[in-house]
Structure formats: structure tokens, C-alpha cells
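Why does residue order matter? Because the sequence determines the fold. Keep that principle in mind as you read this record.
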Amino acid sequence: MAFDPRMSDQSDAALLTRSADGDGAAATELYRRHGAAVYRYVWATTGSEAEAADVLQETFMTVLERRSGYDATRGSCTAYLCGIARHLMYRRFETRIEFSAEIDELAEQIATVPTLPAPPQEQAERAQALRNLHVAIRALPPHYRDVLILIELQEMSYADAATIVGIELGTVRSRLARARARLAELLGASTANTSR
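Structure:
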């Protein structure tokens, strides 16, 4: 369905309601506004483009099939949609999260497309660092990984992360601090093991 300029001035809540009523233009506008953020969140969480595409589609189908439970006072529409995606992911996968790249590099990959590959030696070192990080992040408890991904990779607000995960704002802050500290410990240990 083509872009409908009449939909661009509609609120997210109105688009969700209209989408549930079968309005294709509203659903398209909702997808245009929030689809990329939901896709990036799922991709960063699962490490799989195919899984991200599947969960993205399932998220929007869920929104289209039911009346919205969205409450703008509780958070952004992106947070609401990522919450649905999170629920679908965890229901879909028995292993909660597989993570595939270094946090800073992954955030850059999400935002940009590289134009020239790095030299082979640099690629090998980078691949090893990514493997180490992958192992370290997978070793984090799931409740730490959730917060880390949402805030560090998705650059969501603490409030939106709290809404998605279903915890208090203070708990988000403490979990993020613990996740960062534990990740640093795990990466330090993996670097020491690699250099031996």
C-alpha cells in the first residue's frame, strides 16, 4: 500500500485503533513509523535477520488482529510494539537471547552500512572480539540482557525499557549498571583467556 499523507498527522493511538478496524493506510503508516525500530530490536536480540523479519511481521499481525492495549501515558508506541515483539520472541524461542556483535559496533551496523571491508588481520581480530562479546552477553542473566539491549542498542529511554520489560524505573537503572559491570568482568576474563 502506498504512503498516504493524510495518515502522517494521525496520533499513534489513532493509527492503532484504525489498524485494528481494518484500515490498511493506518497500518502502513504505523509500520512506516515504528517497523524499523522493532526490527532492529528483534535483530539485536536474536542475531538473526530471518527471525527479526518473522517476529516483526507477527508483531504487526498481532496489532492488526486485536484492539489496542496501548496507553500513551505508559510509554511510546515504539515501546508498546517492542513489548509485543519481546513477548512473541520469548514465547517463540526456548533459549531467550542469542547476541551476535559488540554493543558499540552493533549500534553502528544498525545505523550505517560499511562501504569498504577492513583488512584481513583487522577482520580476524574484530571477529574474535565479537565472538568473545557474544559469549559474554549470552552468559548474562536474561533480565540483564533485556535492559542492556533496549537501552544500549535501541537507545530507548529508561522509561520505555521499564514499560517493555514490565519493571520499575529504578530497577532498570540497577539492572543496567549490573549488566555493564558483569559484561566488563566477562570480557576481561575472555580477553585474558584468549591472550594465553
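The chain has two domains: 6-94, 101-196.
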